[in-house]
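Q: what does this look like with hydroxy diiron-OXO moiety bound?
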Amino acid sequence: MLSKKIEEALNKQIRIEAESSQVYLAMACWAEVQGFEGVAQFMFAHSDEERMHMLKLVKFVNERGGHAQVSDLDAPPTEFGSFKKMFETLFNHEVMVSQSINDLVHITLEERDYATHNFLQWYVSEQIEEEALARNILDKINLIGDDKGGLYLFDNDVKQLVAATDSTSK
Ligand code: OFO
């Protein structure tokens, strides 16, 4: 059974995951209208993943005697400036999500809720991967700068990354 405090904290995280999904969906649209298919595919897939993160929390809250809340969401931006800026935004967003997961883990220890603590370990590992992936992409983009040919190759690279992730997750 979840305490009120844990239930509220998990519901706050549900909203963060849902907003993450919207942010990446907006990034996918921005990349797609500019013809960067690889980056768009990456962002669409990432948006789906965030929805999965949200649903995992929703199920957990409901199964543990709480009530998962589906709330209003802040609208994401529609413009992202450049790929470099967009991936910086993505990286900073993931750092914010990691901080929020850490705070949540801290609350479970204060409340001595070891079942929720255990459940959240999946998110702790996931955040390590997500931050590493975002950092990796940012490193590549920093190497390319604003070179058009470089951006074309980068887009192809990202497309292959999505294809590789798809085949390993099946
Ligand atoms: Fe990208 O983060 Fe969810 O958890």
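The chain has one domain: 4-168. Residues 17, 20, 50, 53, 94, 97, 123, 126, 130 surround hydroxy diiron-OXO moiety (CB under 6 Å).
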